[in-house]
Please model this.
Amino acid sequence: MTADSTIRRAFRSTVLPWLVLAIGIPASFFLFTLFQDSVERVGRLRFEHEANNANAVIQRRLRSYIDVLYALRALFASADPVDRLRFHRFVESLDLKHRYPGFISMNYAAYVPAWNKEHFEKAVRRDTSLETGGYPGFAIKPPGERSEYFALVYLEPMAGYEFALGLDLGANPMAADPEKVAEAVRQHRDSGQLAASAQPLRVKRAKEAIYLAMRLAVYRKGMPIDTVKQRRAAYLGSVGAAFDVAYLMRGAMNEEMQRYMRLRLYDAGSAVDPRKSSAHGENRLVFDSEQLAGRPLPGPAIDASPSAFLHVLPVEIASRVWEFQYSAQKDSIITDTDRLLPPLVLAGGLLSSLLLFGMFYFLAFSRSRAVALANNMTKDLRASTEQLTALSRRLVEVQESERKQFSRELHDRIGQNLTALGINLDILKTQLASDGSAGLRSRLDDSAALLESTTGAIENVMSELRPPMLDDYGLLPALQWYGNEFAGRTGIDVKVHGDERMERLTPAIEIALFRIMQEALNNVAKHAHAKCVDIKLEHLSTQCIMSVSDDGMGFDVASISSSRRRPSLGMVTMRERTQAVGGQFEVRAVPGGGTQVVVRVPC
Model:
């Protein structure tokens, strides 16, 4: 028996070094893969954040252009008739060059039936309101007899655009497909909705440029426009605006972004009638940021390379779907320091495994020393777990710090500017005499409403980043607030229970419990098919307990706990946040169906 026992001990001592090596090498590669995925995921988030910011600038500018068009239509609704001089003064007061970068021109196209063509041309030739000599050579172009004309008659500025005076939008020779342009003109006449050109227009002035146009129908003052027939009878013409696509995009992407990020704009077709999409189901390329660098316009292919990030943002503007595609090489987004981290982790893991293997191998025949060294190695390994936990905790702290800083920046910079803008609007309304322009007072009211809506949207973003309710009033009011927000978004009833007199917890514990509750509710919305969620917060003498229970379809706890199945990212995140504040995390199956998440943290 003694000999057998000695043989078994010797065998175990010999196998142990190889076992350490067999475990250590795969574990090192697993950590390498994990950190590599994390680095790429952080790089993607950084890239998508920059793309979203650029897209937000573009959308704000486009919506400001749309507001100008509606203001121009309001001019026709408030005055009858609007002559060339009034049109000129209105556009001149907008100061397009400085207030609306990228805005090239504004115009008015009059609807001219065939029977009125000759009279209309004579009237324009005699118009001396701006030019003392009138426009003796005016004629609708291109020439030819058609049943109806949509002739450009007012253009601001006129200089540089004389070629467009009299141009029939229903037979526009500058368009790649004049029939589609004519169809768009008739569609916006019949619908009364804002419409964008279905294709870019290439116009040569000092140099060739690519323009996009938007148009809005104008109807005779006082006539009904409830039906298509009524709108056709009341149709007077349309106001339109053209803007330089390259100028618009250049303002959204600074020179540094243009060096590593590529932006392509595609026309994805009509938002009103999906059947009227681009030919052969392919989106039409309208703009490519390569043009800003003077390179030729490439084809419409999307960067699908594994070495590149791609972010696609479809936006519906002026009855069309525009698709913004942002792409960048991963090497230009991920920093050298980030890229170096996974190899360092791999090298450290492999080196540690080899060192452990060597130490166990040379000490295999000295059981006592091997046991002592094994204890030391276990202690070192335990310290390296602790280090990973500390790293995880630090990542969470950095994330929350960035959220808080970003929220503060929104409040201190944008919020204060919006407040100052609101004060200015109130001062303008106060100083406006009671017999002042009704149109100006209406625009001030609209601006105030838009400002209030923008302020509300920014406050919602700040609340998502760092709920002020949590910092100001504590965990329970923050849970109640978020529960109400979640119920409003998803329709799932959320009830929050707790003692409102309970003492405040440390900021680290409060934010950890709040984020765990957010992740738990997110899992309920995605997987549980629940109708009701109960959130309970209890404060005992030595610990605080938070539970989130739902009445959904439930799950098999054993399958999640099984080592054969990788836990979901949400579960891992909630568990790590709990461990970061020294707590315990548990998931239970509720009898009769449903799931309960329980978190216990020391007070």
The CA atoms of residues 308 and 329 lie 4 Å apart.
